[in-house]
Design a protein that fits this description.
Number of domains: 1
Number of helices: 2
Order of helices and strands: HEEEHEEEEEEEE
Structural class: mainly beta
Radius of gyration: 37 Å
Largest sheet: 5 strands, mixed, barrel
Helix content: 10-25%
Low-confidence stretches: 1-22, 36-42
Strand order of the largest sheet: 5-7-6-9-8
Distance between the termini: 108 Å
Strand content: 35-45%
Mean pLDDT: 79
Number of strands: 11
């Protein structure tokens, strides 16, 4: 009787050969990791230029910066911060201004939605182009309690601070540049809260406002570009 041992060895050898020749399965595909992209934070002031800066010392320390949008011209020619002047009107517009008795050499407004809300408005209400010329100069600021502005003075509307109102008692305005491109300067104000509280306010600030070429500004250089 023949031994079956060699047959067993042969079967093992063939099986081993088959396993050795069998290709290993391909590796599972690895998901490619997306490289992190840097998120560029949008600049809230992109396309904007500073219009006014305001600092309050009393009744509490606070600061505001207002902006003018270089890409937008409001339909009424206004903005949160703005300036107007009869010097910026062309001849046809000046005739309209004179007919409506609305001619004024210069008015300035600096306003911010806050919080808290801040609004300052100054106007050479009783002045002509002689008292407030198309040039640099220093002027006195008065409030309504003084009986109105005299020629050469600027009348200040009540200062809005949050839900509070302050009547201006005195102040100064310095115009450093005033031409067909716009007006730039500084101001200081002292005011007292209305309603009898007696709380006093002290403010100072700067303004750099364009002659944007809107309504009644036909003689302007046009829209100012961002620096």
């Amino acid at each position: 009787m023949r031994s079956s041992i060699p047959a067993v060895f042969l079967l093992v050898a063939i099986t081993g050969t088959l396993f050795a020749c069998k290709k290993a399965p391909p590796p599972e595909p690895v998901a490619e990791q997306e490289e992190p992209t840097e998120e560029v934070a949008s600049d809230a002031t992109e396309g904007m230029i500073e219009a006014c800066t305001i600092k309050m010392a009393q009744p509490e320390a606070n600061e505001w910066t207002t902006y003018w949008d270089t890409a937008a011209v409001p339909r009424d020619g206004e903005g949160p911060s703005s300036a107007h002047s009869e010097f910026w009107a062309n001849e046809e517009e000046k005739k309209s201004l004179n007919r409506g008795s609305t001619a004024m050499p210069l008015s300035i407004r600096c306003s911010s939605d806050g919080p808290p809300v801040m609004s300052i408005a100054l106007s050479a209400f009783s002045s002509t182009e002689k008292e407030v010329p198309f040039d640099s100069g220093d002027y006195e600021i008065v409030g309504k309690a003084d009986g109105g502005a005299k020629p050469g003075q600027f009348l200040a509307a009540p200062v809005m601070f949050g839900d509070r109102m302050f009547e201006v008692t005195r102040g100064t305005l310095s115009v450093d540049r005033f031409d067909s491109g716009g007006v730039r300067g500084r101001f200081r104000l002292e005011a007292t809260e209305t309603g009898g509280s007696g709380v006093e306010a002290e403010l100072e600030g700067t303004f750099d406002l364009p002659c944007r070429g809107g309504p009644m500004e036909g003689a302007c250089d046009g829209n100012r570009t961002a620096r």
